[in-house]
Amino acid sequence: MDFKHVYRMFALALRDADRPLRIVVVGANDGRLADPIYPFIKTHAIDAQALLIEPHPYLMPILKEHYAFLSGARFSAFAVGAPGTTTLYSVKPEHWETLQPAYAPASWPAYRAPLGITSADRDFVERWVRSAGGGSPSPDEAIAPFDVTSKPLLDVMSDCDFTGPIDILQIDTEGFDDVVLYHSALETTRPRMIAFEHGHLADSSQQDILEFIGTDYETTRIGRDVIGVRKSLT
Question: Are residues 117 and 186 both part of a single domain?
């Protein structure tokens, strides 16, 4: 995500809040690298309540370690979506060292870039593997599916005893962001601000999701991202 603009959005949420911020992150990854929420909380919102949702089993222990400083952190390994099972596609550990794209800094651990593109869209993961590996390994060699339980966001929040309104909803699920929003019960959770990636969505899906949230949110496209601010705040 574009750090500068998303960070500015979070600062606005902090300025207008009259209580500790309530933050939900869907697709939290390791919670720290290339994530604007982490430095914002550490610097400005150490008393925040945060629900960090990450379904990849390798990442959950790392995520919990990175957020050990935050007493108000809650964690969930469910996917957000329709009730049932969602199949996600991920790069196998034996190929992490090989599949390091040009955008990944040398300081990143080997898992960060390959697991950062875990997605419900296998075609998306295939394209990434071909780009990062230059044809070796092949997508069939590098990609493994795994199933996770999916639930609407309200159910995930209830499971984690994280009830009530949301100040910031950040979504980064590699082409699944619209599905997450459709199952986030925005009329009930009423996030004051939303940040999500639209760049991996098809053009028609981009338009549909902007229309879906456009009634209640002023939206701004910044590169691959969309920032939405509830109209009552603007």
Answer: no
Question: Between β-strands 143-151 and 79-80, what pairing exists: parallel, antiparallel or unpaired?
Answer: parallel
Q: Quick one: 158 and 226 in the same domain?
A: yes
Q: Are 140 and 133 in contact (CB under 8 A)?
A: no
pLDDT tens, residue by residue, 151-208: 999 999 999 999 888 999 999 999 899 999 999 999 999 999 999 998 888 888 999 9
d(CA 26, CA 37): 12
Range of the domain at 105: 86-147
C-alpha 40/C-alpha 43 separation (Å) is 5
Do 111 and 75 fall into the same domain? no
Asked if 219 and 228 touch (Cβ cutoff 8 Å), the reply is yes
pTM across the whole model: 0.93
Helix axes 37-44, 3-16, angle to 10 degrees: 40
Closest CA to 34 of 86, 112, 128: 112
Determine how many CB atoms are found less than 10 A away from the CB of residue 1.
21
197-200 LR contacts (CB < 8 Å, sep 24+): 197/1, 197/171, 197/172, 197/173, 197/224, 197/225, 197/226, 198/224, 198/225, 198/226, 199/223, 199/224, 199/225, 200/119, 200/121, 200/124, 200/174, 200/175, 200/224
Closest CA to 49 of 190, 168, 136, 223: 168
